[in-house]
Design goal:
alpha/beta; Rossmann fold; Helicase, Ruva Protein, domain 3; 2 domains; 12 helices; about 20% strand; elongated; binds S-adenosylmethionine
Length: about 290
């Protein structure tokens, strides 16, 4: 099968099958081979790698992934794309396509059953309406992964890699950096997709850390502390944490912050991940 990464070939396939691209499902198909090469290089794919691709579309990126990796498991929600993928990927014997919503899958179980728990790389041009839930699902459900290399909206990439005291720093930055080291692979113009999306894009690599960046006694409590600290960005940490569902009053929060050597007048957006961990561990030890 001829490669799909061109406007001409993509239009030809779409026309042949009378396929109508769905905005609702975030269907913006890649038509630029250079960007695909940057994704492949950014993910440092070798013949030992097992890839999970979320949303293969008509199979454009999938073809290249299959050539570089040992196996590719592609998960596509849109059943109208399945007959197309059967044609476009027919020359590859190392690709399996699953017709499901990725958010409904027990991914950890899937990786254990299909790949004996071997660590996988997630590589995808993600549907932008569900970028964050998809990334967080792979991380929070502790799917054995080496890397997540994904095309996302530029603003999301900026939040994923943001550092304390910057405008993009928020609970998503902390949640992702707890598990991974983020690195921008490349910025991507709108013109490399059919149809052009309304937003700029970025390919980002989230390299899984061998151990989380900080030690926390209670992961759920840690995430609750982070969420509460960012809930009202203009409030002090003391106010944010004492008017949250952590169930602690001002006196208790004051004592906790003092024990962590954190000024209660600071705002959540200035805290490092280590400081969030210290607060969460201090709360879990008094309760
Ligand atoms: N990989 C193709 C490419 O680069 O040309 C298509 C990428 S397109 C941005 C996103 C793809 O994700 C679409 O094929 C869409 O149908 C699929 N998709 C959307 N939501 C999904 C979900 N919840 N689970 C699995 N696939 C999904």
């Amino acid at each position: 099968m001829e490669k799909l990464a061109s406007s001409k070939k993509t239009k030809e396939i779409v026309k042949k099958y009378g396929f109508r691209l769905s905005k609702k499902l975030g269907q913006n198909f890649l038509i630029d081979e250079n960007i695909i090469h940057k994704i492949i290089t950014g993910a440092e794919i070798t013949k030992d790698d097992i890839i999970i691709e979320v949303g293969p579309g008509i199979g454009t990126l999938t073809q290249y992934l299959a050539e570089e990796a040992s196996r590719v498991l592609a998960i596509e929600i849109d059943k109208k794309l399945i007959p197309i993928l059967e044609e476009t990927l027919k020359d590859y014997d190392n690709i399996e396509v699953i017709n499901k919503n990725v958010l409904d899958i027990n991914l950890k179980e899937l990786v254990v059953s299909k790949f004996k728990g071997q660590r996988v790389k997630v590589v995808a041009n993600l549907p932008y309406y569900v970028t964050t839930p998809i990334i967080m699902k792979f991380l929070e459900e502790e799917v054995p992964i080496k890397d997540i290399v994904v095309m996302v909206q530029k603003e999301v990439a900026d939040r994923l890699k943001a550092k304390p005291s910057t405008k993009d720093y928020g609970s998503l930055s902390v949640a992702v950096q707890y598990y991974c080291e983020p690195k921008i692979v490349t910025r991507v113009p709108k013109t490399v997709f059919i149809p052009n999306p309304n937003v700029e894009s970025t390919v980002i690599r989230l390299k899984a850390l061998d151990n989380p960046q900080v030690q926390v006694d209670d992961k759920k409590l840690f995430h609750n502390v982070v969420r509460a600290s960012f809930a009202k960005r203009r409030k002090t940490l003391l106010n944010s944490l004492s008017f949250s569902d952590l169930g602690l009053d001002k006196d208790q929060i004051n004592k906790i912050l003092k024990s962590c050597h954190i000024d209660p007048k600071r705002r959540g957006e200035s805290l490092t991940i280590e400081e969030f961990a210290a607060i969460a561990n201090s709360i879990s030890r008094i309760s």
